[in-house]
Amino acid sequence: MAVIVNGKWQDKEGNFKHPDMVRVDKQIEDELVEGLVESALVLHKQMKDFKIKAFAECYAFVDLLRKEYEMERITSTVGAVTLKSFNGIKEVQIQVAKLITFDQKLTLAKEKIDEYLTHKTENLDSEIQTLITRAFDVKNGKVDAKQIIGLKSYNITHPKWKEAMSMIDEATEIAGTKSYIRFKQRAGLKIDGGMETIVLDLAALPVEESEIQTVKKELVKEKQGDNQ
């Protein structure tokens, strides 16, 4: 519900209005948004709790294996883990990715690459030139580490290019690691089915328009029944 003080509704500017001054559609919209956001917060906590539990259970299993083989625990964390059901149809996978950052030498590397491009523009494939320059695009205040490191895959032997690649090596710093956990199962739960990732990202979760329309019709019927 909206913030209500002494029976009055607070608007976006912090002012309080008598409910008679708030349009019915705005009251309905407020109730809808409040309800959905509250549900989202509940789901958010459930997913966070599940993620913590999933990591803990996988790492506990690895500890169990260490104990079985009388191995001493060397580190406080476990690296990549892949666990499979007995028939191989289901899988839990933990991957550890390095968090890469760059120091000021990356700017110098960009300048050196610009020097190279200035000399080679006429003979350089325009598509490759675009890919090279886009690698340094800044998004959300950061460059894409994969694209920067990917520049080293080009088979370019020009001295300026090699010098730039050396600068990138010197500019690269490992800021830490980040662990990802994924859940997979084979299509149709068949042993020969392709392995598919179970989507837990709400934005990427595939939903058919027909499914939405079906639920919408049910909601409309419920609202109509309530109004009778």
Describe this structure in words.
- The chain is an alpha+beta fold and 228 residues long.
- It has two domains: 1-77; 79-205, no CATH class.
- The protein contains six helices and nine strands, in the order βββαββααββααββα.
- The strands form three sheets. A four-stranded antiparallel β-sheet has the order 4-5-8-9. It has a three-stranded antiparallel β-sheet with strand order 1-2-3, with no helix packed on it. A two-stranded antiparallel ribbon has the order 6-7.
- Strand 2 and strand 3 form a beta hairpin.
- Helix 2 packs antiparallel against helix 5.
- The radius of gyration is 27 Å and the shape is extended.
- It starts with a strand and ends with a helix.
Condensed summary:
The chain is α+β, with helices and mostly antiparallel strands. The chain contains six helices and nine strands; from the N terminus they run E-E-E-H-E-E-H-H-E-E-H-H-E-E-H.
The order of strands across the largest sheet is 4-5-8-9
Number of helical stretches of at least 4 residues: 6
Radius of gyration: 27 Å
Q: Classify the secondary structure makeup into a structural class.
A: alpha+beta
* Helix and strand run: EEEHEEHHEEHHEEH
- Termini separation comes to 24 Å
Strand content: 15-25%
* Envelope shape: extended
The total domain count is 2
Model regions low in confidence, pLDDT < 50 over at least 5 residues: none
User: How helix-rich are the residues, as a percent range?
Assistant: 40-55%
What do the pLDDT scores average to? 89
